[in-house]
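# nightly structure sweep
# worker-07 picked up a monomer target from the shared queue
# config: single-sequence mode, recycle default, output format = structure tokens
# input follows
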Amino acid sequence: MKTNTAIRILISALIALAFAGCASSPKPVAHNIKITVDKSLENTSLQIDLIGANAVSDIPKWESYSVTEYWQPGNATRRDTDRITLDYGRGKAASQTVASTDAKWKRWLDTGASYLVIIADLPGVSSDRGGAADSRRLIIPLDAKAWKKDKKAPLEILVQESGLRLLTPMAPKK
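# output follows
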């Protein structure tokens, strides 16, 4: 009899823990993403790719993938990636926004994307480093609670000669 009661208590505790974990787990959402090139780059031709990434299967690859290799002509990884490409340069807007309503967001979120990988083809920057050490790569969470901003305000990124810079502050960790 005591064994059955102990088992019921243990099962109840495990169920409660499972529900508590679900309640606090990240909820990836589509964001408006505003990317602006610095005045020093306004007449420089460059491209920026945005990629929805799954934390388990994609992020380890993107953290270590050579950004230099990614931008090589005919690169299979870039060609096969479900991405949005933004073009900047002479005669093009220095600031561009990818709307949260863009159809690409639905595909990314439907395949479990919980991060956005942003990769810039910056002229003159070619030292490959892993993760955030490579200033041409920025990986940001899509969890709505990760950001200290109005829900409709875009996540803002500035492209400088030295690399990508996140302007939107992240929310403090709880």
